[in-house]
């Protein structure tokens, strides 16, 4: 019975010209999207490699220079693109890809692509994630909205009922016939993406496991949509009304809820403005130790403490350059201030995330969106991770430079210059993005929400078909 | 026929509860989006006024300090922050260069969530380092805002589709079409009249609910012209969708097919076209790589810093007035720094300019492309009306840059003349006043929308539709 | 007055109406009998301009139905097999709307008069059509014919699905209209009702008018025999 219904429905779909056209359009769009994304991905990564090498060269060839001058001159950390960004660009467009690392200051990533583009870019890009998240659910609606209503309208429902059909078997058959083509389209897309990515071996480490995880998330998302659309079709009398209702669900879940969520999140847990943020930091900085200000109260305190520790009574007698030492202490103090303020941002964002999760009750789009971005390593979390790693590297670099200054010069000797070979000793910035396991652990709640959606929607759908 | 259609269309709409449903929906959508927009504008205003107040307070402290210094008293602040030094004023007492919201700012978030609305340029540091982007969670940028523009551009067409997809096909499906067609009337005209009547009623509802919402939310007096333009745009855009609905009604037949066709059109115009055009723009005129630009700038900067002393000498040779006016001829860090900054800026200019021109090309291309899709036209026009479009922020950026130059120039004159900054100079400090760009492309947009709608309707009348052939009337 | 002259309609290779020539004068009722697909409905559709004739011509009150499509429709009232009206409007409102768009501005009293004349019971005038039976809806249709002061009435299977009483009432209404000088063309399968109401009877097969009688000249059994003979007749022998 299940199989019979499945074959009958599949045949009906296959014979419908509109269905064939819709599939063709979706597949063409997907093809274009994957092609464009792959090109951009390659471009960006080539630029990344060039920039990283060039920056290192500039750093290595500074010549003889005071280490602290070098720290002001600074260096850049560049964020690479990860293989799965081919599938989901996430928030990459809205985040800068380069962080300037200098002394005394933690900078944010600069130059987001969105800031350089026109308002047109805010509509969204033709990328695989756009099609996976928006267009395929729409395709599900077009294929499924009249699955049950057409039987009522053509009058075949009465005939079917008089055959003593078990409703749930019949319903599962219909469900399968809708699921199968969607599953195939998605599977083919992911397979092509996987093959493409495994052939681009120069860039990043591509893992089939992550791609599979992403595939499962999307299949789950489609299962939820199929359940909802078929539920509506089974409940409603007319095809037209079923179509309008299904579309309303789509608009609510995919368009309205995310936007409303973003508004709610912002009102409830706002980020400070850039100027406020900077002002708060400089206020905190003024109260603490400033490496450039030997006359401040904090400097004097530090001086006394160090003198006592070493049992000497003049900073000239210390075995190292106190200027360098103070610089390093000031640096550490400032790093703590930045840590505190950036943590505040993270906390705000964590609370915003809770708002998004709350609204996931009306929108399966939200958990899917977050999971997909996280697995693709294009979400805000990964960006934080990168920015934290860059900060760690910045602190280490400052210590490397200040220590050299402190060890190799005497107090008051600002004319000290490090060798031109010295710069090459600074380790390279290496960044490892979080692995799939830890991504899944930190996004467990989204997975749960998605799971609950799947189970609930499927049981409700099966229960209603009992009473058709 | 018109009189009867007019009376009975209203009766039918009331009895099928369409009018009631639409009124509630419109009030809810407009209400929610206006509240969102207003709260953003209020936050923006508060942020700016807090920043200005802070400057006022520190200014008071600065004047007090200046007073003490001028009276020759000892002051208890670090020496380099004493405001008699022009560079101290320039760095520690910057002005707020704010972009005040336009009266209609609440209708469209536009780029407002992406860019900052006030900046305090200082004399040191380069313009290039001024960060104009706002600190916003990128997730929020990704999802966008539930603003009035979203309701008008995305949701209103969907309401129109639900409201119009079956004007003719429902007659066929409920069986009254044959009787109707046997009357001495042209069916196309009849469909047209029905749709125009629905357009009329929807326009009325949109206007009323928008006015109610705006009144409740509170308007400033001079805002009415803006609201009229907003309504004009919304109505022209609605007419465009009604024209599409007209075509679909006369060319397609069953209700379900009509609905699917209109939804397809919606997907094409609202979702696909903007993203495809954006993608095409990026492919044809790729955004130049910021990463590579950074590389280039770094190399130039490294050169310039090495030559700071030499640069100062050159600078003074070029500006003999400073050498003459200044009796002390004392030169310190800032003299060298400011001179080298200037040189660095000039040396980097070609790189920045090259980047900006390429960006400009990309953006102007995107600007031209917008005319292909009425959706983009409306979104852009609403943002312009709200003063939150890309162009507005570009304009603001330019003004801030100019102001930063002015600020630097004003204070460096003191620096090179080695004259202290005094209380009497306070009043002549440059002030920033944002001048919003006047743009009348909103009217062009309305005209273009009207023209497209008329062309579509004309096409519907000129070309033989299915109603005229077999199919819809004979079984 | 309806006249068709060698009226022909082809759908591809299939000829639905084949050189049909007939005329219905004022005060005449022509009933067209025939199996499904005989071309009765196609003929009516051509008279209404819903279908364009492949060749030949038809006139209503002397006006060509193709050249003066809208003008001829002013004289016509058409009642399709299953007459449907706007379910959320009342009988009076439906009548007002349809006569209104046909160009007749009439007061509510006049409209009530027509509904009464069409035999609709008083308490139904203000009721929504969604509660009406087919017979009641047809009475509204007849009232529309009266309101439009119609010259030509085209009926497509008007009595199918009506109970005998309603069918009988409908026949009486047709007589009334006939007496007013309306030319009626009615396509039907109902031999009995045709014999009852018609002044003339035609039998169609494969798009051709095979036989024509004056109703008074023929009894019901004779009519039935003639009908069956025509249906069973082989094509080559005709």
UniProtKB/TrEMBL annotation, chain A:
**Mind listing the UniProt keywords for this protein, alphabetically?**
Membrane, Transmembrane, Transmembrane helix
Pfam families, sorted: DUF3526 (PF12040)
Q: Where are the transmembrane segments?
A: 21-38, 130-148, 175-196, 208-232, 239-258, 445-464
What InterPro entries does its record include?
Answer: DUF3526
Please give the PANTHER family that the UniProt record associates with this protein.
ABC TRANSPORTER PERMEASE, ABC TRANSPORTER PERMEASE PROTEIN NOSY-RELATED
Name of the protein in question: DUF3526 domain-containing protein
Q: Which organism is it from?
A: Flagellimonas yonaguniensis
Q: What is the lineage of its organism?
A: Bacteria, Pseudomonadati, Bacteroidota, Flavobacteriia, Flavobacteriales
UniProtKB/TrEMBL annotation, chain B:
Instruction: Say yes or no: keyword Secreted present.
Output: no
What is the top-level taxon of the source organism?
Bacteria
For this UniProt record, give its keywords in alphabetical order, as a comma-separated list.
Membrane, Transmembrane, Transmembrane helix
Query: Which Pfam families does the entry link to?
Result: ABC2_membrane_4, DUF3526
Looking up InterPro entries in the UniProt record yields: DUF3526 (IPR021913)
Bilayer-spanning residue ranges: 148-168, 195-218, 224-252, 259-277, 442-463
Q: Which PANTHER family match?
A: ABC TRANSPORTER PERMEASE, ABC-2 TYPE TRANSPORT SYSTEM PERMEASE PROTEIN
Its protein name is DUF3526 domain-containing protein
> Taxonomic classification, please?
Bacteria, Pseudomonadati, Bacteroidota, Flavobacteriia, Flavobacteriales
TrEMBL record, chain C:
Q: Name one Pfam family in it.
A: ABC_tran
CDD domains, per this entry?
Answer: ABC_DR_subfamily_A
InterPro entries reported for this sequence: AAA+_ATPase (IPR003593), ABC_transporter-like_ATP-bd (IPR003439), ABC_transporter-like_CS (IPR017871), ABC_Transporter_VariousFunc (IPR051782), P-loop_NTPase (IPR027417)
A GO molecular function assigned to this protein is: ATP binding
- Which SMART domains does UniProt cross-reference here? AAA
User: Which Gene3D superfamilies does the record match to this protein?
Assistant: P-loop containing nucleotide triphosphate hydrolases
Keywords of this protein's UniProt record, alphabetized?
Answer: ATP-binding, Nucleotide-binding, Transport
**Superkingdom to which the source organism belongs:** Bacteria
Which residues, by range, are in coiled-coil regions? none
The segment(s) forming the ABC transporter domain are: 2-231
The protein here is known as ATP-binding cassette domain-containing protein
- The species this protein belongs to is Flagellimonas yonaguniensis
């Amino acid at each position: 019975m299940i199989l019979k219904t499945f074959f009958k429905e599949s045949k009906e779909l296959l014979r419908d010209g509109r269905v064939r056209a819709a599939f063709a359009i979706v597949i063409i769009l997907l093809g274009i999207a994957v092609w464009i994304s792959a090109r951009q991905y390659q471009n960006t990564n080539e630029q990344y490699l060039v920039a990283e090498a060039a920056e290192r060269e500039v750093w290595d060839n500074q010549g003889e220079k005071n280490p602290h001058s070098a720290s002001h001159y600074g260096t850049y950390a560049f964020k690479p693109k990860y293989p799965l960004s081919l599938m989901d660009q996430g928030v990459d467009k809205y985040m800068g890809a380069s962080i300037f690392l200098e002394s005394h200051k933690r900078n944010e990533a600069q130059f987001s692509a969105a800031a350089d583009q026109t308002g047109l870019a805010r509509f969204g890009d033709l990328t695989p994630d756009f099609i996976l998240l928006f267009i395929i659910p729409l395709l599900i609606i077009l294929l499924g909205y009249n699955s049950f209503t057409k039987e009522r309208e053509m009058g075949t429902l009465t005939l079917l009922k008089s055959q003593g059909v078990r409703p749930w078997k019949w319903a599962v058959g219909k469900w399968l016939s809708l699921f199968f083509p969607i599953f195939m389209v998605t599977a083919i897309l992911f397979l092509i993406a996987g093959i493409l990515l495994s052939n681009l071996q120069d860039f990043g480490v591509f893992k089939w496991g992550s791609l599979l995880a992403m595939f499962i998330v999307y299949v789950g998302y489609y299962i939820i949509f199929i359940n909802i659309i078929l539920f509506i079709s089974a409940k409603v009398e007319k095809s037209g009304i079923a179509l309008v209702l299904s579309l309303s669900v789509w608009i609510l879940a995919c368009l309205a809820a995310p936007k409303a969520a973003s508004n709610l999140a912002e009102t409830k847990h706002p980020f400070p403005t850039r100027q406020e943020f900077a002002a708060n930091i400089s206020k905190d900085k003024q109260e603490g130790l400033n490496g450039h200000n030997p006359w401040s109260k904090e400097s004097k305190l530090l001086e006394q403490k160090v003198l006592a520790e070493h049992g000497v009574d003049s900073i000239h007698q210390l075995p190292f350059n106190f200027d360098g030492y103070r610089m390093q202490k000031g640096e550490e103090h400032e790093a703590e201030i930045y840590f505190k303020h950036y943590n505040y941002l993270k906390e705000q964002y964590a609370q915003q995330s809770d708002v998004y999760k709350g609204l996931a009750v009306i929108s399966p789009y939200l958990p899917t969106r977050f999971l997909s971005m996280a697995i693709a390593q294009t979400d805000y979390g990964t960006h934080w991770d990168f920015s934290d790693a860059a900060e760690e590297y910045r602190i280490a670099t400052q210590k490397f430079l200040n220590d050299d200054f402190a060890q190799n010069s005497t107090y008051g000797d600002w004319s000290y210059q490090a060798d031109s070979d010295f710069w090459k000793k600074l380790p390279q910035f290496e960044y490892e993005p979080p692995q799939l396991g830890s991504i899944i652990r930190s996004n467990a709640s989204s997975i749960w929400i998605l799971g609950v959606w799947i189970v609930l929607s499927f049981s409700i759908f099966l229960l209603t078909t009992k009473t058709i | 026929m018109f009189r009867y259609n007019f009376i009975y269309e209203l009766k039918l709409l009331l009895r099928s509860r369409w009018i009631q449903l639409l009124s509630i929906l419109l009030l809810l959508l407009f209400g929610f989006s206006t509240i969102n927009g207003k709260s953003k504008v209020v936050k923006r205003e508060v942020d700016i006024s807090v920043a200005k107040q802070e400057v006022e307070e520190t200014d008071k402290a600065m004047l007090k300090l200046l007073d003490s210094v001028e009276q020759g008293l000892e002051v208890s602040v670090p020496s380099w922050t004493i405001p008699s030094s022009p560079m101290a004023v320039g760095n520690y007492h910057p002005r707020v260069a704010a972009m005040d919201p336009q009266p209609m700012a609440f209708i469209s978030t536009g780029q407002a969530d992406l860019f900052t609305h006030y900046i305090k340029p200082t004399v040191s540091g380069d313009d290039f380092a001024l960060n104009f982007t706002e600190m916003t969670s990128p997730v929020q940028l990704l999802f966008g805002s539930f603003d009035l523009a979203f309701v008008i551009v995305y949701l209103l067409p969907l309401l129109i589709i639900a409201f119009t997809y079956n004007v003719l096909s429902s007659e066929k499906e409920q069986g009254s079409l044959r009787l109707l067609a046997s009357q001495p009337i042209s069916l196309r005209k009849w469909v047209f009249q029905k749709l125009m009547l629905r357009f009329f009623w929807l326009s009325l509802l949109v206007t009323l609910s928008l006015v109610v919402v705006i009144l409740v939310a509170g308007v400033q007096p001079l805002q009415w012209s803006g609201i009229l333009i907003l309504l004009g745009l919304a109505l022209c855009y609605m007419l465009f969708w009604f024209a599409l609905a007209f075509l679909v009604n006369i060319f397609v037949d069953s209700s379900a097919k009509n609905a699917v066709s209109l939804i397809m059109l919606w997907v094409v115009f609202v979702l696909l076209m903007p993203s495809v055009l954006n993608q095409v723009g990026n492919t044809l005129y790729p955004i130049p790589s910021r990463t590579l630009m950074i590389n280039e700038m770094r190399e130039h900067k490294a050169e310039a810093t090495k030559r700071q002393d030499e640069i100062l000498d050159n600078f003074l040779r070029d500006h003999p007035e400073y050498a003459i006016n200044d009796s002390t001829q004392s030169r310190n860090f800032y003299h060298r720094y400011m001179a080298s900054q200037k040189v660095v800026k000039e040396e980097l200019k070609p790189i920045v300019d090259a980047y900006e021109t390429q960006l400009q090309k990309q953006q102007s291309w995107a600007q031209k492309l917008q005319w292909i899709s009425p959706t983009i036209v409306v979104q852009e026009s609403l943002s312009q009306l709200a003063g939150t479009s890309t162009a507005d922020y570009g304009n603001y950026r330019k003004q801030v840059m100019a102001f930063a130059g002015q600020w630097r120039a004003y204070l460096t004159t003191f620096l090179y003349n080695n004259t202290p900054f005094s209380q009497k100079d306070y009043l002549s400090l440059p002030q920033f006043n944002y001048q919003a760009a006047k743009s009348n492309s909103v009217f062009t947009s309305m005209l273009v929308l009207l023209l497209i709608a008329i062309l579509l309707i004309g096409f519907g009348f000129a070309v033989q539709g299915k109603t005229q052939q077999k199919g819809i009337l004979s079984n | 007055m309806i006249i068709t002259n060698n009226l022909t309609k082809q759908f591809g290779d299939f000829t639905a109406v084949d050189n049909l020539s007939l005329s219905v004068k004022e005060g005449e009722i022509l009933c067209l009998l025939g199996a499904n697909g005989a071309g009765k409905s196609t003929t009516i559709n051509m008279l209404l301009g819903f279908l364009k004739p492949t060749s030949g011509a038809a006139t209503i009150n002397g006006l060509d139905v193709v050249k003066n499509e809208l003008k001829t429709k002013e004289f016509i009232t058409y009642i399709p097999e299953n007459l449907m009206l706007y379910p959320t409007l009342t009988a009076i409102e439906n009548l007002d709307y349809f006569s209104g768009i046909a160009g007749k501005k009439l007061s509510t009293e006049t409209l009530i008069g027509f509904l009464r004349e069409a035999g609709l019971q008083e308490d139904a005038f203000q009721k929504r059509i969604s509660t009406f039976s087919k017979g009641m809806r047809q009475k509204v249709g007849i009232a529309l014919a009266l309101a439009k002061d119609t010259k030509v009435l085209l009926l497509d299977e008007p009595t199918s699905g009506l109970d005998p009483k309603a069918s009988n009432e409908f026949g009486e209404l047709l007589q009334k209209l006939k007496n007013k000088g309306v030319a009626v063309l009615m396509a039907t399968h109902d031999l009995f009702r045709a014999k009852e109401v018609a002044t003339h009877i035609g039998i169609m097969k494969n798009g051709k008018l095979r036989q024509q009688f004056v109703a008074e000249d023929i009894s019901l059994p004779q009519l039935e025999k003639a009908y069956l003979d025509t249906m069973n007749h082989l094509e080559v022998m005709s």
